[in-house]
């Protein structure tokens, strides 16, 4: 991404010129930044390599190019989640590791729940020697962004500084892999006809959304990939546990849920996104990456007929209209926007 640091009195004429040339851009207090989006309307840029993604989810169609988020804002939130720990202020011009930042000495913070050494978390660096940028036993320490740097035995966030070191709420040093199943259906009337949005005149999609217990924000029901687990199994497991409460229903209901879920997750989904996530839990040494896959109940006779029931980490669960005005956790709004574009629905 090109970056120009300009005097304030130069911004107006250059902004006018770019507008005339129809060149996308953004302006902030640090100057003008040229934006190179993958497609108009969302802040992702195309990875130089747009080859089809190889993954364990081999039945997914890859109709959306491999992308990474150019935003690095939520990863620099002033106060770290579930704590009173303050980040060092990192300006846009200081994010990249190649940029000089004299005196950069952020707080080292690991949440008590991680420091207690649960089975899903790594020990402290020094007490073990993780093999970064490779498959380390059953733990995949490879990044979708390519090779990341390791400094003083600790991995460096590939998207740059966050104003905080350590692991925060994340269990793994380096990439923490998640899977986000985006389950959608069409919003229909009493006759089963698709409902069109009154402004865009496009059909309205609905997706299964959960309200997270930890922060109270609405989100896509997803979770962490267990060591050695296939991503396809993670997608199905997390949706079943968080949106259908498969762990808490009677045995007589489990078989029905399993049948419907298996039917939906065997359908041709498409990989919406695979890469780094701008997440408030990210630190200089630990960060979130995800694979998001859309599974669409076209006829409304699969998951649509199952009663949603919050479970696991979900406080509430419901079908929500896909709309740009609906606020979501982390970068989930951008994922829904990509789904809307693919399905040619209202956004």
General description of the model:
- The chain has five helices and 18 strands.
- By secondary structure, the protein is of the alpha+beta class.
- α3 packs across α4.
- Among the domains are: 36 residues, no CATH class; 167 residues, Nucleoside Triphosphate Pyrophosphohydrolase (Alpha-Beta Complex).
- Helix content is 16%, strand content 24%.
List the helices and strands and how they pair.
Blueprint: E1 3-4, H1 8-20, E2 25-28, E3 31-34, E4 44-46, E5 67-69, E6 107-110, H2 112-115, E7 135-136, E8 139-140, E9 150-151, E10 154-155, E11 164-168, E12 174-186, E13 205-212, E14 218-219, E15 223-224, H3 231-243, H4 251-265, E16 270-276, E17 286-297, E18 314-321, H5 332-343
Parallel strand pairs: 6-11, 12-17
Antiparallel strand pairs: 1-3, 2-3, 4-5, 7-8, 9-10, 12-13, 12-15, 13-14, 13-18, 16-17
EC number: 3.6.1.13
Catalytic activity: ADP-D-ribose + H2O = D-ribose 5-phosphate + AMP + 2 H(+)
InterPro entries: NUDIX_hydrolase-like_dom_sf, NUDIX_hydrolase_dom, NUDT9
């Amino acid at each position: 991404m090109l970056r120009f640091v300009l005097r304030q009195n130069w911004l107006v004429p250059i902004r006018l010129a770019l507008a005339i040339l129809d060149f996308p851009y953004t302006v902030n207090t640090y100057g003008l930044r040229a934006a190179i989006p993958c497609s108009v309307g969302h802040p992702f840029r195309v990875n130089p390599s747009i080859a089809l993604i190889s993954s364990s989810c081999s039945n997914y169609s890859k109709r959306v190019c491999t992308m990474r988020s150019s935003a690095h804002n939520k990863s620099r939130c002033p106060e770290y989640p579930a704590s009173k720990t303050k980040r060092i202020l990192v300006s846009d011009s200081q994010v990249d590791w190649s940029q000089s930042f004299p005196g950069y000495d952020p707080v080292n913070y690991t949440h008590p729940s991680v420091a207690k050494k649960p089975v899903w978390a790594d020990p402290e660096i020094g007490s073990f020697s993780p093999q970064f940028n490779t498959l380390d036993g059953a733990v995949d320490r490879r990044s979708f962004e390519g090779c990341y740097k390791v400094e003083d035995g600790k991995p460096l966030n590939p998207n740059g500084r966050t104003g905080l070191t350590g692991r925060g709420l994340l269990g793994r040093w380096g990439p923490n892999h998640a899977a986000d199943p985006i389950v959608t259906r069409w919003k229909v009337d009493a006759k089963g006809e698709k409902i069109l949005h009154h402004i865009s005149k496009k059909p309205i999609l609905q997706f299964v959304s959960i309200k997270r217990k930890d922060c109270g924000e609405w989100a896509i029901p997803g979770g962490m990939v267990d060591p050695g687990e296939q991503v396809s199994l993670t997608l199905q497991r997390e949706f079943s546990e968080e949106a259908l409460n498969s762990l808490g229903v009677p045995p007589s209901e489990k078989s029905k849920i399993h049948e419907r879920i298996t039917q939906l997750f065997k359908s041709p989904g498409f990989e919406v996104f695979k890469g780094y996530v701008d997440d408030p839990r990210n630190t200089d040494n630990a960060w979130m990456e995800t694979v998001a896959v859309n599974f669409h109940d076209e006829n409304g006779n699969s998951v649509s007929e199952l009663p949603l029931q919050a479970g696991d980490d979900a406080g509430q669960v419901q079908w929500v209209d896909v709309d740009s005005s609906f606020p979501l956790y982390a970068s989930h709004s951008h994922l829904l926007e990509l789904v809307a574009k693919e399905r040619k629905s209202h956004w």
